[in-house]
Write a structure and sequence with these properties.
Two copies of one chain form a homodimer. Chain A is α/β, with parallel strands linked by helices and 214 residues long. The first copy, chain A, contains eight helices and seven strands. In chain A, helix 3 links the parallel strand 2 and strand 3. The interface between A and B is medium-sized, with 35 and 35 residues.
Chain lengths: 214, 214
Amino acid sequence: MEIKVVRNILEANDRIAAQNRDLFTEKGIYVLNLMGSPGAGKTSLLERTLEHLKKRRKIAVIEGDIETSRDAERIAHFNIPIVQINTGGACHLDGNMVRGSLAELSLDHLDLLIVENVGNLVCPAEFQFGENDRAMILSVTEGDDKPMKYPLMFQVSSVLLLNKVDLIPYLDFDMERFQADALKVNPKLQIMAVSCKTGEGLNAWFGWIEGQLA
Amino acid sequence: MEIKVVRNILEANDRIAAQNRDLFTEKGIYVLNLMGSPGAGKTSLLERTLEHLKKRRKIAVIEGDIETSRDAERIAHFNIPIVQINTGGACHLDGNMVRGSLAELSLDHLDLLIVENVGNLVCPAEFQFGENDRAMILSVTEGDDKPMKYPLMFQVSSVLLLNKVDLIPYLDFDMERFQADALKVNPKLQIMAVSCKTGEGLNAWFGWIEGQLA
């Protein structure tokens, strides 16, 4: 039966994710899984985060993309270790892909590993790879109806960064409805309204990461 | 008007897609698969298209969503046959899901069946269900780098509707680069710059559909 096959794949993934998690714990590395639709602002958030944290913490990045290494190139000037995973068609990262990429990183003396997942509001939410937290980023341009229509990513995330709030004056975006729906789906979700373009609201995000690292 | 909800178990099945195609051909129905990220504007485009074509053609709609029937409710006032498929977690429609939903539609005397796929820039491109053409809609807010990073949907689509062009003044969107990249990925792709909000550019789209129906 098809459902059984899917379940087995997820179980196999969870086993590898647990092994990764043990390794990260042993090395004292906090691992963040950054998820969201294409164009939501994952790489922009990463740039802002690296600008802020680079001098205080030892950071490495894993970039997940179906093809190209454009995102990795965008952050290459930060001069930190970066591994690019090209999934070759797969719409999410999984435990095995991340496991395979760890050989390219020196895990000793690392504080923070940020993994930018493949741009997709659906599938990445189903596959853990051993991370400590999942953060999702959603652009206001995607619409205020997303928590109810795509609930899983909202459910599994610790933080939701609502990005591009500088565009709200030009959109029909009902912030109250959005926040109410997001919290209905996940009452523990921390929602931060930000603009990676103007910098608005990012201090809350930096504070949150520092808190997780501490 | 009552919206029919059909729940399906995912079962990738190209054979069923071919059977669907035979059935559509036999009934003389032109079938369009509308794909794009969450929030790209699929339902808005559908609304505009129904406004324009409803009096001239017999149209039915299949709405694909992971959960909810919100999109179906948005177009219920058009008083045309609508079937809602809830994929129950699956990130795309496939031949079997569409096949299962056809029992809810009267296929005789139908000119056009528009299928709004699950919001996702990746997976829907991999699964046909017997459609004549695939049209993708991408919002300028998703960024000008998408053709190279998510090439498959661009490759399999006949038409690309670049939506929300009214927001370009507030974004860093390089139209020349975008068009060049999209055509590099698919030299036959017909690109139409539109705004479902203002109506800009939609006549080209209506003309294209009329041409396919003729």
